[in-house]
């Protein structure tokens, strides 16, 4: 047995704290906490680390940034703008870029980390969705994640608006126009946010407070809750990696996971620093100070706002004026509906799935996307809806680069956002079922080894081999199709939950959800190839095509 | 790891010469399978190999340290000589060096730790039980009892008067923000109906002039009134503002945001005037609000040949010859037109405000 005594420098403080807090009990339970491994589990970590980078670089920037819209003459070291009238916010952003050592680097790291934060949030949420990791008991964390995503978008919009350059000013102008379109209270919201008419004197200082204090505070609180819930519930595990619904396998938090995670943080910081050093982002000095009468063509927001930009561009000019009031549908619909569908859909999905499938069990082992074809297809439909609207936000660039008529791109996207998701749904579902068939084929007679043998009689045969144990475990993690919800109970009376139009809908949806599932049987070992079996095999193979 | 598959492989040659090599076990199918084991911490170490790995890890840590030292040296010695970077060239150079060295520093540490975890840590994979997170029925009902007892003890259920008056007392607190935040901004009133043109025209008319002169939008110092004769080439397009708008001090930008106007010169015979606005143009010079009626971007692009005004934000397109009617895009209303005339000295003047609110639609607009 190894010597278990710690050096005094460690045991001293440890005991000192334990005497007062009883912390050893907690630490004993948690230092060896198991963390399952999978590359996709690192996506959320990127989001966490980029948030930390945002906090660090953000604090640096606040030390010089002046959130003020007072007009000043610029007299810093960037020659082309010397003597130009601009807001103090813009002047101080130039000061950070050109007169503070490392300032430009910090600004660029901050901006890149912000993009990375939102991008990794998206990737993480897609991973959670496609593997079904949001299922009971993890719905709370799914909702917290949605809240984080929403806040991150607003935080980003406020952040890139702060420098008060020509590009970000245009973004604020659009924000104002969208606010105005809200029925009844729109103009009040506009006046109250801007402290009067656009642009006024108040919007930059107000956004600054929200951007550096209120919103990051809420984000930090939500991330903390997110992590604590994850820690408490234990992480989900990918199928076929040893874990079951009753146990979790992996490497202990201390030392392996901790070290891996630490290295990962360093890599994230290295990547953002690399981008900040060599990939220019938001060169505000090229845009000039904000001028409400000026605009540059090809103005694009940061990528996560692209969906709103695209929706606004595609909307036909609908507006209703009646009884002395105006309802500006051409702004209201694109501002609310697409994001409403994406966020609303994501918010109700866990409950919807529980209701449709009648599955109220706890799930700790994730689904392989192919084994939940309806969910995977719905997710892909959502991605194509979002992605097409996002692309539509760049239709001027597409039109210019590919020499397509601008209006033609608009018309294309007007139809594509409806047809695309349907196609994506159908195609994805077919692909999932195809992959299920391929799994079934592997289990039925092994996988094709790519070796042809010739028997003494001259018969050619392809060698099939048994898949590895890990592969078998992965394939057999598939849950066989659950029986459809009973329409009638034991006494022939229509069952609770299947009565009435809502009940019928539920039964229909249930059949639609569970309808297609390719059973997996066999042990994966190739058969002895008797003549008859070979024929059977061939016909089965035909079926799996 | 190929042992397993060899058991079931047929006897005979593994591979015919001249054919592509057989698929390595698991390479296609079992990417997450036993192949991955190589990359996990192993439980046993070969001490000789480990020593070598240790030196490699240490080397990476040294690289990281050297990069950090390099960062500090560059920072003090080169990046900000004479207290400033003096423009774009120095900023770029300094950004490359500082960022590059910072990257190397983080990367060196990250790579070192990663090799350490993968090659030197001897932790074995472990498993832990998952517990049902829900509490047993007994605890639940005992909690329910406690809650009920507490409610009884406090009299919360027994004394509805207390409960209701307390709720009543607390309700106004919820309204507090509505009151406290009232002074965030003024009420909209009729603000959005008029622009600075109205005020400027009124002032000019009071002084006995036909209207307010148009100045070219080129900053407070450079702006000058515009003569009709100076803007006489068909196809031209410029941005103009009411004279005196730059004297408004910190209000100027807010007024420009509403009063910005585009002046276009079109062959007079091509203009299809709006009814009642036939005399609002001067020799084919026509003025429209520059603020897009969609969400307020400046509709700043003008195509001479088609006479189209295009907003670069969301591509609302207006026909300049036809009262700036919307011909494509999400804007629902034409750009309002500004009435123009010429004063005795030949300067272009506006004789009134836009006939309707400029910019995006809003509820009270009607």
From TrEMBL, chain A:
Cited InterPro entries: Cyt_b/b6_N, Cytb/b6-like_sf, Di-haem_cyt_TM
* Record-linked Gene3D superfamilies: Cytochrome Bc1 Complex, Chain C
Q: Could you tell me which residue ranges the Cytochrome b/b6 N-terminal region profile domain spans?
A: 13-239
Whether Transmembrane helix counts among this entry's keywords is yes
Q: Which cofactor does it need?
A: heme
Q: Where is the composition biased (Basic and acidic residues)?
A: 522-545
Protein EC: 7.1.1.8
Reactions catalysed: a quinol + 2 Fe(III)-[cytochrome c](out) = a quinone + 2 Fe(II)-[cytochrome c](out) + 2 H(+)(out)
* Residue segments, region Disordered: 517-545
Segments traversing the membrane:
39-65, 109-130, 142-162, 208-229, 263-281, 322-352, 372-392, 404-427
User: What PANTHER family does this protein map onto?
Assistant: CYTOCHROME B
Query: What is the name of the protein in this document?
Result: Cytochrome bc1 complex cytochrome b subunit
UniProtKB/TrEMBL annotation, chain B:
What organism, scientifically named, is this protein from? Answer: Actinocorallia aurantiaca
Which cofactor names does the annotation list? Answer: [2Fe-2S] cluster
- Chief location bin: membrane
Domain (Rieske): residue spans on this chain = 280-349
Q: Where in the cell is it found?
A: Cell membrane
PROSITE patterns reported in the protein's UniProt record: RIESKE (PS51296)
Stretches the record annotates as Disordered:
1-47
Q: Which UniProt keywords apply?
A: 2Fe-2S, Cell membrane, Disulfide bond, Electron transport, Iron, Iron-sulfur, Membrane, Metal-binding, Oxidoreductase, Respiratory chain, Transmembrane, Transmembrane helix, Transport
Could you list the residue ranges that cross the membrane? 57-76, 96-117
Q: Which Pfam families would you find in this protein's record?
A: QcrA_N, Rieske
SUPFAM superfamilies reported for this sequence: ISP domain (SSF50022)
- Indicate what this protein is called per its UniProt record: Cytochrome bc1 complex Rieske iron-sulfur subunit
The job of this chain, per UniProt, is described as: Iron-sulfur subunit of the cytochrome bc1 complex, an essential component of the respiratory electron transport chain required for ATP synthesis. The bc1 complex catalyzes the oxidation of menaquinol and the reduction of cytochrome c in the respiratory chain. The bc1 complex operates through a Q-cycle mechanism that couples electron transfer to generation of the proton gradient that drives ATP synthesis.
- The answer to whether the entry has keyword Electron transport is yes
State the membrane topology.
Multi-pass membrane protein
């Amino acid at each position: 047995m190894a010597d278990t005594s710690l050096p005094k420098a460690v045991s001293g403080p440890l005991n000192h704290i334990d005497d007062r807090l009883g912390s050893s009990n907690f630490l004993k339970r948690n230092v060896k906490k198991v963390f399952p491994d999978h590359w996709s589990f690192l996506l959320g970590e990127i989001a966490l680390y980029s948030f930390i980078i945002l906090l660090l670089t953000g604090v640096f920037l606040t030390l010089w940034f002046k959130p003020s819209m007072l007009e000043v003459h610029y007299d810093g070291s960037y020659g082309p703008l010397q003597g130009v009238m601009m807001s103090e916010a813009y002047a101080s952003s130039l000061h950070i870029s050109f007169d503070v050592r490392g300032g430009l680097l910090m600004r660029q790291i901050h901006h890149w980390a912000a993009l990375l934060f939102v991008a990794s949030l998206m990737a993480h949420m897609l991973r959670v969705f496609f593997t079904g990791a949001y299922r009971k008991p993890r719905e709370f964390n799914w909702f917290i994640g949605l809240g984080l995503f929403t806040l991150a978008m607003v935080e980003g919009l406020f952040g890139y608006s702060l420098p008060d350059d020509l590009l970000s000013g245009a973004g604020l102008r659009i924000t104002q126009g969208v606010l105005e379109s809200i029925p009844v209270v729109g103009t009040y919201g506009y006046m109250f946010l801007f402290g009067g008419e656009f642009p006024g004197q108040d919007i930059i200082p107000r956004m600054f407070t929200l951007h550096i204090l209120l919103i990051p505070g809420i984000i930090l609180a939500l991330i903390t809750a997110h992590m604590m819930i994850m820690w408490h519930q234990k992480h989900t595990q990918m199928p076929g990696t040893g874990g079951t619904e009753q146990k979790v396998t992996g490497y202990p938090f201390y030392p392996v996971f901790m070290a891996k995670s630490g290295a990962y943080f360093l890599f994230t910081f290295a990547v953002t620093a690399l981008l900040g050093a060599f990939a220019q982002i938001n060169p505000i000095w090229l845009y000039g100070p904000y001028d409400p009468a000026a605009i540059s063509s090809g103005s694009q927001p940061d990528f996560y706002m692209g969906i709103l930009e695209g929706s606004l561009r595609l909307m036909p000019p609908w507006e209703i004026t009646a009884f002395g009031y105006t309802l500006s549908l051409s702004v209201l619909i694109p501002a609310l509906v697409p994001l409403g569908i994406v966020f609303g859909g994501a918010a109700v999905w866990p409950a919807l799935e529980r209701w449709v499938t009648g599955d109220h069990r706890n799930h700790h082992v994730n689904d392989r996307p192919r084994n939940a074809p309806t969910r995977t297809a719905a997710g892909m439909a959502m991605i194509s809806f979002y992605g097409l609207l996002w692309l539509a936000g760049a239709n001027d660039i597409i039109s210019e680069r590919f020499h397509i008529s601008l209006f033609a791109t608009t018309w294309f996207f007007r139809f594509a956002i409806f047809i695309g998701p349907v196609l994506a749904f159908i195609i994805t579902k077919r692909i999932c079922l195809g992959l299920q068939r391929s799994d079934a084929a592997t289990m039925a007679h092994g996988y094709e080894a790519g070796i042809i043998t010739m028997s003494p009689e001259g018969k050619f045969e392809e060698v099939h081999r048994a898949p590895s144990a890990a592969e078998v475990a992965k394939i057999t993690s598939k849950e066989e199709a659950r029986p459809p919800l009973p329409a009638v109970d034991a006494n022939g009376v229509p069952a609770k939950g299947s009565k009435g139009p809502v009940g019928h809908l539920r039964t229909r949806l249930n059949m639609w959800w569970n309808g297609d599932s390719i059973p997996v049987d066999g042990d994966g070992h190739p058969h002895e190839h008797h003549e008859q079996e070979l024929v059977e095999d061939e016909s089965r193979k035909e079926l799996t095509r | 790891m190929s042992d397993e598959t060899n058991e079931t492989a047929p006897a005979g040659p593994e591979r015919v010469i001249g054919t592509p090599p057989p698929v390595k076990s698991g390479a296609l199918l079992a990417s997450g399978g036993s192949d991955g084991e190589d990359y996990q911490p192993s439980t046993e170490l070969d001490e000789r190999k480990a020593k070598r790995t240790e030196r490699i890890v240490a080397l990476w840590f040294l690289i990281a340290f050297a990069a950090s030292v390099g960062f500090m040296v560059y920072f003090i010695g080169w990046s900000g000589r004479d207290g400033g970077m003096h423009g774009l060239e120095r900023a770029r150079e300094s950004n490359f060096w500082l960022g590059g060295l910072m990257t190397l520093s983080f990367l060196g540490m990250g790579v070192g730790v990663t090799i350490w975890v993968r090659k030197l840590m001897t932790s074995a994979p472990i498993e832990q039980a998952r517990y049902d997170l829900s509490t047993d029925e007994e605890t639940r009902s005992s909690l329910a009892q406690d809650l009920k007892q507490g409610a009884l003890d406090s009299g919360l259920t027994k004394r509805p008067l207390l409960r209701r008056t307390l709720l009543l007392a607390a309700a106004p607190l919820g309204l507090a923000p509505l009151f406290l935040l009232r002074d965030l901004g003024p009420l909209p009133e009729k603000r959005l109906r008029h622009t600075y043109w109205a005020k400027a025209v009124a002032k000019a008319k009071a002084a006995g002039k036909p209207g307010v002169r148009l100045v070219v939008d080129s900053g407070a110092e450079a702006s000058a009134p515009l003569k009709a004769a100076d803007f006489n080439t068909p196809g031209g397009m410029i941005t103009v503002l009411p004279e005196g708008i730059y004297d408004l001090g910190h209000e100027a930008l807010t007024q420009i945001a509403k009063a910005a106007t585009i002046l276009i010169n079109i062959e007079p015979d091509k203009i299809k005037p709006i009814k009642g606005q036939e005399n609002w143009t001067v020799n084919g010079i026509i003025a429209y609000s520059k603020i897009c009626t969609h969400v307020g971007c400046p509709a700043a692009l003008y195509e001479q040949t088609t006479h189209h005004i295009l907003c670069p934000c969301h591509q609302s397109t207006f026909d300049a010859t036809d009262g700036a009617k919307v011909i494509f895009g999400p804007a629902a209303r034409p750009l309002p037109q500004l009435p123009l005339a010429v004063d005795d000295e030949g300067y272009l003047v506006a004789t009134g405000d836009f006939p309707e609110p400029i910019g995006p639609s809003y509820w009270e607009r009607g």
